[in-house]
Amino acid sequence: MKVSTQSQLRFRLQQVAFYVLLVMAIVLLSKLAITTNQTYDLTANNQHSLSDSSLKILQTLNTPVAVSVFVSPDYEYYSAVTELINRYQQHTEKLNVKFIDPAFAPEKVRQFNIQQQGEIVIQKDSNSEHVFDLSEQSFTNALISVARKQHDWIVFISGHGERSIDDNSDFGLSTWHKNLQSKGFKIRSQNLVGTPQIPLNTKLVVIASPEKPWLAGEINIIKQYLQNGGNILWLNDPSSSAFLRPLAEQLGIEFIPGTVLDPNAKMLGLDDPRFVLITDYANHPVGLAVKSVTLLAEGSAIQQLNETSKDEWHYTNLLNSQPDAWVESHRTDESTAKTQTFNEGKDVHGPVSLGMLIERAKPENTDKFQRIAVIGDADFVANSYVGNVANLDLGMALINWLAEDDTFLSIPVKTSIGTQLTLSNTQSLIIGFGFLFVLPGVLLLIGFLLWWRRRRR
User: Fold this and answer.
1) Res. 3 pLDDT band, cuts 50 70 90
2) Which residue intervals of 93-196 are DSSP H helices?
3) Cα–chain center distance at 427
4) Model's pTM, two decimal places?
5) Which residue has better confidence, 210 or 49?
6) Cβ-proximal residues to 118 (8 Å cutoff; 6+ apart), any chain
7) What radius of gyration, in Å, describes the C-alpha atoms of the chain?
8) Are 363 and 228 spatial neighbours (Cβ–Cβ below 8 Å)?
9) DSSP secondary structure string for all residues of 28-75
10) Whole-angstrom Cα distance, residue 264 to residue 15?
11) DSSP annotation of 424
12) Ordered domains of the chain (ranges, CATH)
């Protein structure tokens, strides 16, 4: 078939038009790629993007924050450091980031006491925090710490056998104490006999399960602090319910005598029904901050007094037990608790409240609210239990709410989903036997069959 000159010309024009359009498309796409910075995280749990909690923290930054990153360009994790910083810079302009090569800035290294490659120093005003591991949790917690008001204190009352923030034993609060410090809280203990006045810069008073009676003068100090609009976290165990009855009456609450027993503890492999599983939380910022079950040990139930409180308190049942739990009126220990059953007329059937939030307008400012939290257990934040399930989340959420830092929520740790393969011993043996014997045998059989077929030809 003969192609005419006109057809050849038309074909060449089409080729020219195609290449011109292709070059224009490449130029436009390149320009779009340069001017547009859009990323998409398609991992199962958004492993490579910031959590909603971190984004909220960035929104609260109203003044610049200095971020000094001490890392050499040839450091093996340099790209991981820059990727972490870029995630934050995409959502705020308040981070003034400066990369410093430690090899060429020895004075800066000594000034900030830098200990390792990739260390990050976050500064705001006179506050500074060091970040040693490249995780969103550590970086955001450091931001929270430098952004939090540093002049307010959390005071733990001592002198009556209360749980101590310096006690490293199973029933101490040292682990919780360290977590609070990492969030920027300033914490101290105070004996009301030696120091009979709550400091004016106290943001929150914590009463952690006293084991001895209080003096009348000490109770009056707390009652006066309460009357002046102070915030309180009261952690109560069944054995300490009677020591602060005047304070409970002022708050319009009472503790139901006895220990809460929960047969649902078996769901976590616990044979002791004195462990109470909490899955029912109030629709409240504290309850919403707890994403999982919490575990209370030897808890006491709380209820509001029948008479209406004259102080216009508002009550919220934060922690509610399962319906089949009950308050056992008899004294129970680990051996007798397993055999106890509900006794109609003597015991109190569930669901019962083991945590109550109490609020009212502050006397000097009706736009702000005085906040009280009463929890019928102190063990959930003790060293032996605070790491279980969501106990730490609950403890941190309570402190944040009581300290009136509603925006400073706990930052969840992101973990990769589906990156671990757990095999039983039988499955491991099958796989090992398959690779050692079955797979080589199959390959030998295939080779033999191929050899046999070729030989027969």
Assistant:
1) low
2) 106-112, 136-147, 174-182
3) 36
4) 0.69
5) 210
6) 69, 70, 71, 75, 77, 78, 80, 81, 134
7) 32
8) yes
9) HHHHHHHH-------STT-TTS--HHHHHHHHT--S-EEEEEE--TT-
10) 76
11) -
12) 52-146 (3.40.30.10), 151-402 (3.40.50)
